[in-house]
Amino acid sequence: MAVPARTCGASRPGPAQTACPWPGCGPSPGARRPASGPRPLWLLLSPLLLLPLLAAPGASAYSFPQHTMQHWARRLEQEVDGVMRIFGGVQQLREIYKDNRNLFEVQENEPQKLVEKVAGDIESLLDRKVQALKRLADAAENFQKAHRWQDNIKEEDIVYYDAKADAELDDPESEDVERGFKASTLRLDFIEDPNFKNKVNYSYTAVQIPTDIYKGSTVILNELNWTEALENVFMENRRQDPTLLWQVFGSATGVTRYYPATPWRAPKKIDLYDVRRRPWYIQGASSPKDMVIIVDVSGSVSGLTLKLMKTSVCEMLDTLSDDDYVNVASFNEKAQPVSCFTHLVQANVRNKKVFKEAVQGMVAKGTTGYKAGFEYAFDQLQNSNITRANCNKMIMMFTDGGEDRVQDVFEKYNWPNRTVRVFTFSVGQHNYDVTPLQWMACANKGYYFEIPSIGAIRINTQEYLDVLGRPMVLAGKEAKQVQWTNVYEDALGLGLVVTGTLPVFNLTQDGPGEKKNQLILGVMGIDVALNDIKRLTPNYTLGANGYVFAIDLNGYVLLHPNLKPQTTNFREPVTLDFLDAELEDENKEEIRRSMIDGNKGHKQIRTLVKSLDERYIDEVTRNYTWVPIRSTNYSLGLVLPPYSTFYLQANLSDQILQVKLPISKLKDFEFLLPSSFESEGHVFIAPREYCKDLNASDNNTEFLKNFIELMEKVTPDSKQCNNFLLHNLILDTGITQQLVERVWRDQDLNTYSLLAVFAATDGGITRVFPNKAAEDWTENPEPFNASFYRRSLDNHGYVFKPPHQDALLRPLELENDTVGILVSTAVELSLGRRTLRPAVVGVKLDLEAWAEKFKVLASNRTHQDQPQQQCGPNSHCEMDCEVNNEDLLCVLIDDGGFLVLSNQNHQWDQVGRFFSEVDANLMLALYNNSFYTRKESYDYQAACAPQPPGNLGAAPRGVFVPTVADFLNLAWWTSAAAWSLFQQLLYGLIYHSWFQADPAEAEGSPETRESSCVMKQTQYYFGSVNASYNAIIDCGNCSRLFHAQRLTNTNLLFVVAEKPLCSQCEAGRLLQKETHCPADGPEQCELVQRPRYRRGPHICFDYNATEDTSDCGRGASFPPSLGVLVSLQLLLLLGLPPRPQPQVLVHASRRL
């Protein structure tokens, strides 16, 4: 029965299996039957259909009875256990540790003390940044208050470093090439600073001004004049705290002044960076928002006006952060949401993407009905049954104009208190009276804007923030609250950062006795790199599976080992929920809620964890401990497995290191040189920060050489070295070297078909014996980042790990005996009442040799020299996996569902593949009979290859971006000129790239760079059946008997099955490989109906009785003159080539 295709988030049904009706089959005594749901009628009748088969004297059930399968399983178990006991050296390594007990101490991890100490250290780090922020904000307010406005100020009067000047000078099309540097622009020298990952100059600040702002305007020049005084404050801050990174002042005018100076990271296309649209600025400039956007889609709104509206709404959405809530609706005679969201939803990245896609589908028709639109918006804001920001409430209306003032609606919903602000936007070129739109905004404490063309979109969709900032400014010191942002990508290459923000207020008055100024000057920000916070957390004392994490009030992680975004969207914060960073369950939901509420807590839970290679799931025990980080919105958690309660700390004094240690041949670290590997085995050392001056390298051999060279210059007790890491490395090197001497060196690996034996330790040593086996060793040299190491610690017994294979890759190459299967187990060490797991040992099996051995062990021969016994499927004797490999399929599958061994020679090169790719029918039967269960999750940090562009302009759906060829076309030219005297052309040239999919990416083109996407992951793990079990795969006239049994003390499932006799039963294939989810994961429309718990900021500034709302509307900013537009028309008609490249457009616009 074919299985229908499944969409992301849906479950895949499969054909059910019937328990075997023959004598002797079914579950063994004491085995638990798998749970099953209602079965179809035809399936309930299937035993009757099999009666003719039961009557057959040569039924295949008698050919491999259950007791024989169990006997084969025991032989396999004994063989694996014997090899591991002889070669693994688990017991011998325990003895070596105990023999050298005087060389180490056992330390205890006390979770509560640890997490409180780390929280205190992080609090101290952030508090130093807060003090620097306050000094900067106070100084900025005083500088601006003392500044005297100059109406006649000129560019040559102001000298500053223009951060974009170097890039513009390198640009052959730039006007700065023609005239050189402006007299007012400084030329600076820079030095490389690894802390900033950049070249910097500590003697100056740098200034970045958005491309769409004229640098020579009076407003900008005055801004540059008074902010120059901040330079000395920046420097003094750095003197007091040398660890400070970027210090930034983002002005409400768009000017960014930052310290230390560094050249701007200029993108390959137009630079649209505007500090006022950065997440940290938006968060610092206003309190959280509940926003309803209503868009007029009546018949008069058509063509370019509708496209301007769509773009405007998308730009408006980009001014919202995760603390805000929003909904978007369109209206004509009636109002309806543009998306599936029927109420306000959190303005997170995924929800905003849903809105942006839905907005592109709006179609103009019908007549204008402002009343319908506003009533819908007010109803949305009055809905108290949903989670929302509960602070600033506002309605943003985009329209081309109309006569109705809908005063009755405002009287009903908003007056007299006017708790909802109304912002109106007149879009496009039209002749409608805009007085009603201005009146709506002024009567409801809002603002009126005009968007006649593309160029007015960005400025006029962000200036509403100035209005929202009024109550904050009027609140004075009460509003001077430092806020810490979500994680986001630094614009200057620092990587992932969080930013502390503090608003800067205008303290001036219009005159003696006049009202206080209510404008926000800007936002002060100081960056803290995530890596600096991570350095405050314990790394290697927690063991391979212990870690520290931190979350904010939204439940997003600040720290987590799984926070690894493969790509970052420059314009959006990096938001990964704690429940998406780990595998979600009820216990973790409770922990997350408690942390968001700022509580302390501790809880031991059983939970599922995903392996490092994302192929396996383990059910484990974890201890969670958490505390709030005072003076912040963050909460810190510590996760420890029970076996990591204790850890080893080498007790090696410098005196001991100067002589030959009794446990090894240590002398000047020569034991780590390749010359010693032939007899001692190859040693990989984890690339850790053992010493400050140690040069890192991705090549482990090179790293070893660097390490040895440094050790010749310093002693292990040097202050520049981490004694804990270095001494533990030395200890474990000697410990594993003794394992070579006591166990490995005297054994013949070929006798048991082993390619290698190995040991890995918490101290960072991985020793592989013999030396030649290291050539094919592909595991991570850092044990804490090796999947086999971490899984072995979490599992009892022997963990098999076949070579990783992808169905799309070529099969394994079995030549030269290089393909092996890792078998590993943890070394559990008991010292008194303290138990820990400091190491993992294992062997590497020769695949081909063990495939042959597997067939012998699953045969009726008592030893390898006994002749084979022929037994056909219709005879009364028992078949086996060796002789009857044409009739029987015998396989070992691991707990993730990956093939480990098979009696079919043609399947040997498929070892490591998900078994559904080898035998889909049988894997589905194992899943349906509860041998396996699965866990589906979503990777929100994945990177996907770019989709083939359907339009070279990379414009969103429905947005037309005219090319120069279009402009030169007479028909288009006539209609465009009639529309607007080239104003649209002017702004269209300057902001050509606004319509592109991702205008702020600095590197690569949309056709070549990877983009962030959501991948669906499915991992399989052992289900509820843990005993011997038989079942029949029933498929019409064809049936297939199989037997499955778990191998004790391993992660293997032994399966014997009849080979399929016909192909008419085509089961749906279970999928394990990551798949791309076009819908960005689980259906967003369903998720918003059950939003995760969160808390917004503790304070809200949305009202002040002294607010002056008289300034409530104006037209478009920076209207171009008629002469400029006509000149531009002539320039384009006479000067532009017929088929220019997009870059020419950009450069031409810069000259303008």
Task: Explain the layout of strands and helices.
Layout: E1 18-19, H1 41-44, H2 46-49, H3 51-55, H4 66-88, H5 90-99, E2 104-108, H6 111-146, H7 165-170, H8 175-179, E3 191-193, E4 198-200, E5 206-208, H9 218-227, H10 230-240, E6 247-251, E7 256-259, H11 279-285, E8 289-296, H12 304-317, E9 325-331, E10 335-337, E11 345-346, H13 349-359, H14 370-382, E12 392-399, H15 407-413, E13 420-427, H16 435-442, E14 447-451, H17 457-460, H18 464-468, H19 470-475, E15 483-484, E16 488-489, E17 496-505, E18 520-529, H20 530-534, E19 547-551, E20 557-559, H21 578-581, H22 586-596, E21 601-610, E22 617-628, E23 635-640, E24 646-650, H23 654-657, H24 677-680, E25 682-685, H25 700-711, H26 723-742, E26 754-761, E27 765-769, H27 787-794, E28 799-801, E29 820-831, E30 834-846, H28 847-857, E31 888-894, E32 899-902, H29 920-928, E33 932-944, H30 964-968, H31 970-980, H32 983-990, E34 1011-1022, E35 1029-1035, E36 1038-1046, E37 1052-1058, E38 1075-1076, H33 1084-1087, H34 1122-1135, H35 1142-1151
Parallel strand pairs: 8-9, 8-12, 12-13, 13-14
Antiparallel strand pairs: 1-35, 2-24, 3-4, 5-7, 6-7, 6-18, 9-10, 9-11, 15-17, 16-17, 17-18, 19-20, 19-23, 21-22, 22-23, 25-27, 26-27, 26-30, 28-29, 29-30, 31-32, 31-37, 33-34, 34-38, 35-36, 36-37
Helix pairs in contact: 5-26, 6-10, 12-13
